Amino acid sequence: MKSKEERVVKHSRFGALLSAVALLSACGGGGGSGNVAVGGGTGGGGTTGGSPTPTPTAGCTLRDRQNWAFSVLKEWYLFPETLPASLDPSGYATLESYVDALTATARGQNKDRYFTYVTSIAQENAYYSTGSSAGFGFRLSYDTNGGRVFVAESFEGAPALAAGIDRGAEILAVSGQPVSTLLANGGPQAVVNAFGPDTAGTSRVLRIQDSAGARDITVAKADYTLTPVSSRYGVKILDNGGQRVGYVNLRTFIDTADPALRAAFAQFRAQGITNVIVDLRYNGGGLVSIAELMGDLLGANRTSSDVFSFTTFRPEKSSFNDVDYFAPQPQSIAPTRVAFIGTGGTASASELTINGMLPYLRANEALVGGNTYGKPVGQIAVDKTACDDRVRVIAFATENRDHQGAYYDGLASKMDVTCRAADDLSRPMGDPAEASTRVALDFLAGRSCTPILGAAAQLRSLSASSAAREPLMPDRPSTVQREVPGAF
What is the pLDDT of residue 469? Predict the structure, then answer.
């Protein structure tokens, strides 16, 4: 059985790997990072407004940075056969646009949907370690057919919730600009632009409508720390016809999720709960280590020889291939049935968790809600420290015990059981009457459900629906928006 310390050592292998990269490319100003992620499932390339452009000093001119990024991809990219033999960077005004051009062929093959990108070292470290970011502190979705924007979730300790804006509220206008007009004329990015820069102090007048009626609320963006498990509805014990069911809602896979998840499962274990709902409906991913912990907490009846996941690099880097085995923790439970709630915003580390449990649960595991995003690959981080540049390069694929991976079209077709359900914004997540939660409870009780459509059929169904909602995302999302789709 692995100890927590052994898990840390295992992940430090990637830190050593990237330190070696730093030594090999020292003349190019390269640096190393130990972060291994399978996040960033639902975003475009780069960060909001692009990554910071440093003052052109030695090693940090645009050409220096472009040449460095190309060298990183040539060494680590999981799909090297798709890279151009050479690409003149002079035609690209930003580092992000150059990286996007380098990965265009893989993107056309549906293998890299802007999963490889450039971000700020400082910004990303702040998010993954503590959940720190700046914004209003809510998550938005928009009606793709009806021209409307809704609040899917508000975060504790952030300005929106403090101002009385919560799940289900509709945003009608931003500082006098009707949302319907913004969407009609400029699409989602026009709404994003109306919100202004993600800097503390940026203020907007939001006209909202909720159960209390329509009103104008002035809200200023502020620095806040995202709580990965909500203090309001993140952990619940639900009554399902006399059966106790554990409910846990994980917003994102960051370091601070570790104690919160342990506390949740300790509560389930203490009450003898073996039927669980894991709500990942908006979870865009994050750190592999937290996904592995989730597996361990669902693996009290697993042994240290049971495989949770395989990590596979390109052939030249096969010495870094890895196998993660279950390591039951003091808080672990032995699940009888597990319902994972997912949507198109469920990606990456979330999918790794669902897929990792499947060989052991089979028909006792269900995907409830909608099909997931489809990201069976993960990034390593390679840094150019002097420029605050970090390339998140797709470098490895993940598979479960049965070597099931490559779910680029989402997990629905890989599951033994799926149950279609709506994301009911009229009720809190975890409320037994909320549509997805209710269907999850039905599955756990052995009641029948309607299967989720495949990716193509689901897309056709959504396009014909007046209630087709997607996370509101900028063209170039920040770190928090990659991992928490729709966050502002």
Answer: 87
- Beta partners for 243? 240
> pTM of whole model > 0.90?
no
pLDDT (tens digit, 9 = 90+) per residue, 296-352?
A: 999 999 999 999 999 999 999 999 999 999 999 999 999 999 999 999 999 999 999
Point out the residues of the chain with pLDDT beneath 70. Answer: 1-58, 454-467
147: left (phi over 0), alpha (psi -120 to 50) or beta: left
b (16+ CB within 10 A) / e for 362-399: eebbbbbbbbbbbbbbbbbbbbbeebbbbbbbbbbbbb
Q: What does each C-alpha distance from 231 to 82, 155, 251 come to in angstroms?
A: 45, 9, 12
Q: Are 311 and 60 in contact (CB under 8 A)?
A: no
d(CA 419, CA 391): 37
Which structure tokens are listed for 96? 């992000």
Contact 251, 313 (CB under 8 A): no
Cα–Cα distance for residue pair 201/198, rounded to 1 Å: 9
Quick check: 346 and 283 in contact, CB under 8 A? yes
358-389 pLDDT, tens digit each = 999 999 999 999 999 999 999 999 999 999 99
Biggest CA pair distance of the chain: 68
